[in-house]
Amino acid sequence: MAIYFSEAMSFARLPLQLRLASIACLLLAAWIVYDLSHWWSIKEDYSFGYLVPVFCAFVLYDRWPAILRIFNPSPLPESSPQGPKRWLDAIGGICLTGSVLVFVLGVLYRGYTGISLPGSFLMTNGFAGIVLSSALVFSDRRTDGAYLDNKGRLAFFGMLLFPALVWIISAPLMSAVESMISVFLLNKVTAVVFGVFDMLGMLIERRGNVLILPKGEVGVEEACSGIRSLTGCLFAGSFLAAVFLDKLWKKVLMVGTALLLAFATNLARGLFLTSWAYAYGSEAIAGTVHDVTGYAVLGVTVILLLCLLPVFNFKLPELAEAEPSQNAQAKGDDNTAKEEQGQA
């Protein structure tokens, strides 16, 4: 176990330029944590942000052996020519330049206005772009100095998608964007709640996002914090997809499912609170009932996502039997290559 830990976590086994880029990204990440911690502490909707550095570290730890295998393949294949990967270098270079400019613009904005949503938003998006574009620019060499093919570089890029993009989820949206999303969600929930009550023949009247009940009025914004459930469930779905799913289409489907479940559970919360207000008065949904149901939305969504993991990972018996044989064949090919090297 100690030997495996020493080999798997050896930072020195990465190429030099990638090590330097990683150190630079870690320093930028520390700055982003310092900046976003202000919003995580004052905006309840984004308090999950404190978990982002921990979950990113866990995902990188979990993928570290696979990352090392990309840059230290055994046996080492023949190096590929530099020509075919120039398009990847060009794309990475352009994206890196743009990301640095966005990050610097955010720093300048913060230095001029102090802590602000636009400054944090620009810095966070710039940081995510720097991490991903650096994964393309500085991964063109293996540890032995040979060129790494495009397949390996893109595989490394894919492994950093969650650790990079999850920071964007933890950064508060600018007020205009957040208001636009909130209004859209509230309109949808209001229409559905009103339609359900009207279809059941219950006395209800709608005035914008306010529902008039026999025992008072209920503003749907009190019964539905859409942004909170949306961002929290998106973070939970992204983490589960990154850790427990192997295929890209499964990861994308899991994130999409998390968004749909966030809306569905939030809608159920709106129906419950409106029903509670209908029975006991609009004052009855304030305080504990409102807050508990808000946290229940995130909890129920996470439980449902966990229940869906076996479905996403389900494999037909034929495929499940074929994979071990393929792995065994690949291991046999590796052993044969090692023997040939030893004889040589």
Question: For the residues shown, what is the average pLDDT?
Answer: 81
Low-confidence stretches: 1-5, 80-84, 328-344
Provide the number of structural domains.
2
Structural class: mainly alpha
Radius of gyration: 25 Å
Q: How helix-rich are the residues, as a percent range?
A: over 70%
| Shape call | elongated
Distance between the termini: 32 Å
Q: Report the sheet-strand fraction.
A: under 5%
Please give the largest β-sheet.
Answer: 3 strands, antiparallel
Number of strands: 3
Give the neighbour order of strands across the main sheet: 1-2-3
**Count of DSSP helices?**
13
Series of H and E elements: HHHHHHHHEEEHHHHH
Quick overview:
This protein is mainly α.
Can you offer a commentary on this structure?
The structure is a single chain. The chain has two domains: 2-172, no CATH class; 176-313, no CATH class. It contains 13 helices and three strands; from the N terminus they run H-H-H-H-H-H-H-H-E-E-E-H-H-H-H-H. The protein has helices spanning 2-8, 16-42, 52-71, 86-113, 117-137, 150-159, 161-170, 175-199, 220-223, 226-244, 248-280, 288-312, 317-343, and strands at residues 205-207, 210-213, 216-219. The protein has a three-stranded antiparallel beta sheet with strand order 1-2-3. Helix 2 runs antiparallel to helix 5, helix 3 (52-71) runs antiparallel to helix 7 and helix 8 packs across helix 11 (248-280). The longest helix is centred in the C-terminal third of the chain and has 33 residues, at 248-280. Residues 1-5, 80-84 and 328-344 have low confidence and may be disordered.
